[in-house]
Design a protein that fits this description.
The protein has a domain at 5-41 and 63-76 and 228-307 and 466-518: FAD/NAD(P)-binding domain (3-Layer(bba) Sandwich), CATH 3.50.50. The longest helix has 20 residues, at 121-140. Helix 1 runs parallel beside helix 10, helix 1 (14-25) runs parallel beside helix 17 and helix 3 packs across helix 4. Strands 1, 2, 9, 10, 11, 12 and 18 form a seven-stranded mixed beta sheet that branches. The chain has a seven-stranded mixed beta sheet with strand order 7-6-14-15-16-13-17, sandwiched between helices. Strands 3-4 form a two-stranded antiparallel sheet. The chain is built from 17 helices and 18 strands. It has 520 residues and is of the alpha/beta class. The two termini are 29 Å apart.
């Protein structure tokens, strides 16, 4: 059979679209196959509540890891807004007190630390810690769009052996206990290690450390930016870049099998099966999903290890206004403009992990909240734009897929109740008092468990990173100098989050897969 396309991309999430755009702009014939009736994967904007004109970032919701080079290379019509406030954290034992980290006012941040701890020592430790982390990020982040360096080369680049050992060789929990004295401060730092990762902070496998590193290196600063128009604006811009360059995107195309020789079979909604041959295949699917498609053609898998498992509860809410806080010293606008940490002290995070590992939903789910509409009201329709209405994204940690294997609906209900109890514990009024109602009179609340994400997005176990994150350098000598996207099959590459240096909304694996084909 003759080759129909130079490249066939499996999946039209943001990474698949990034790869397609680079390849098409290089003059190659590119086909993109997508199961859903729309592009975007987890990076979409959607009207989550019937009769309410608000397009929420339904799954992924912030951008940190997307290099400016990709935006520039592909001429993306995309605007990212930097958040002034980093975080606000009420103290669980006394929610009338909290820690506000203001990126625009160091003096105000220092004063907030002083109110929390009684002196300036913890703020000075915080400032020193993140200054070192910024140095690490500035050195490591530029390497993510290059062939893989060895671990030793990465260590030499960091040029701080103590910092390298703290991040790469020692359990993060141990480091945080040595570095900070306050349990609340330790918890604020620790949460970046647990987004989508179910791990004890003292886990000797260091899964928490890998997650922590990815959450700190984005853009060389670790800042998390707001996409104007929601996450759909990111993938909309990428899809336009790909199609403008000549790529063909076919939606409602369910891939049935993948032959690593270059043959892909896919089914249209009516049941008709098509077959296409590409010179190169690029998979944005999770490796476990790709393995099932390879098995359908009699080929061996490309991945190994334990089954992926996600560990988060995602809740979308729409409010008539921001709720009042128990901490009267903090403006709710400031508190909700950054990451609002709830019941995420170090000890609470450890206790919640132990509870979930034992098969129970934590009574007060550790969670964090972000309000998109304080930075960008374009996602609200005309009926809401001039009101006090606000969207909230709640991300609950330590909610592994195993909690819902026997009864996902029950787990969803228990998880949502635990998350709302957690939030109500730090508010001066019940959240229910400010929840909007949809066209059917129901509260505007949407909760998605890991198993819901598995069904919605074909994420195995609901793992938002497709599988466990990997260090962003070669861990084996055979990987050195590769792009971290290669498989055992010469004509089959990974271009999704399951590649090395995958995870998050970044486009990095898509860029690297394209470069592996185009020769850098």
């Amino acid at each position: 059979m003759p080759t129909t396309f130079d490249d066939i991309v499996l999946g039209a999430g943001h990474n698949g679209l990034t790869a397609a755009a680079y390849l098409a702009r290089a003059g190659r014939r590119v086909l993109v196959l997508e199961r859903a009736d729309h592009v975007g994967g987890a990076a979409v904007s959607a009207q989550a509540f019937r009769g309410v004109d608000a397009r929420l970032s339904r799954y992924s919701y912030l951008v940190s890891l997307m290099p400016s080079q990709i935006i520039s290379d592909l001429d993306l019509d995309l605007r990212l807004v930097r958040r002034r406030y980093s975080s606000y954290t009420p103290v669980p034992s006394d929610p009338s007190t909290g820690l506000l980290v203001d990126n625009g006012d160091d003096a105000a941040t220092a004063a907030s630390f002083r109110r929390l701890t009684g002196d300036d020592a913890e703020y000075e430790r915080w400032h020193h810690f993140y200054a070192r982390m910024t140095s690490l990020a500035e050195r490591l982040f530029p390497t993510v769009l290059e062939p893989l360096r060895s671990a030793e080369q990465a260590r030499e680049l960091v040029a701080d052996d103590d910092l390298w050992r703290a991040v790469v060789e020692r359990p993060l929990g141990e480091v945080l206990r040595e570095t900070f004295a306050d349990d609340t401060v330790r918890g604020v730092v620790a949460t970046d290690a647990l987004i989508g990762t179910f791990a004890d902070l003292d886990d000797p496998q260091l899964r928490q450390n890998v997650c922590f590193l990815y959450h700190l290196v984005g853009g060389g600063t670790g800042d998390w930016d707001v996409p104007v128009g929601g996450m759909g604006a990111v993938t909309g811009a990428l899809a336009k870049a790909a199609t403008d360059a000549g790529a063909t995107i076919v939606t409602e195309a369910e891939v049935c099998s993948v032959d690593p020789s270059g043959v892909v079979q896919w089914r249209e909604p009516g049941g008709r099966v098509h077959e296409e041959r590409g010179g190169q295949l690029l998979s944005a699917f999770a490796p476990a999903v790709l393995d099932r498609l390879l098995a359908a053609s009699g080929a061996d898998p490309v991945s190994s290890g334990p089954e992926p498992e996600g560990a988060q509860l995602k809740v979308n809410l729409l409010l008539s206004r921001l709720p009042r806080l128990r901490d009267a010293s903090v403006d709710p606008v400031a508190a909700f403009s950054g990451t609002f940490h709830i019941n995420e002290t170090f000890d609470q995070l450890q206790a919640a992990h132990a509870t979930a590992a034992a098969g129970r939903v934590p009574e007060l789910l550790p969670c964090e909240i972000y309000c998109h509409t304080l930075a960008d009201r374009s996602i609200l329709g005309p009926d809401l734009a001039d009101t006090e209405a606000q969207t909230l994204t709640l991300f609950g940690v330590h909610f592994p897929a195993r909690l819902g294997r026997d009864d996902n609906e029950r787990a969803r209900e228990e998880g949502l109740a635990a998350a709302l109890r957690s939030l109500d514990a730090v508010l001066a009024e019940p959240l229910e008092d400010v929840l909007m109602r949809d066209g059917d009179g129901r509260p505007c609340v949407e909760a998605r468990t890991p198993l819901d994400l598995e069904a919605d997005l074909a994420l195995p176990g609901g793992n938002i990173f497709h599988r466990a994150l990997q260090w962003p350098w070669a861990e084996r000598q055979a990987e050195e100098g590769t792009w971290g996207v290669e498989t055992a099959y010469e004509r089959l590459l990974l271009c999704g989050a399951g590649a090395r240096r995958g995870g998050g909304v970044s486009g990095i694996p898509g860029h690297n897969a394209a470069k592996a084909i185009l020769g850098g």
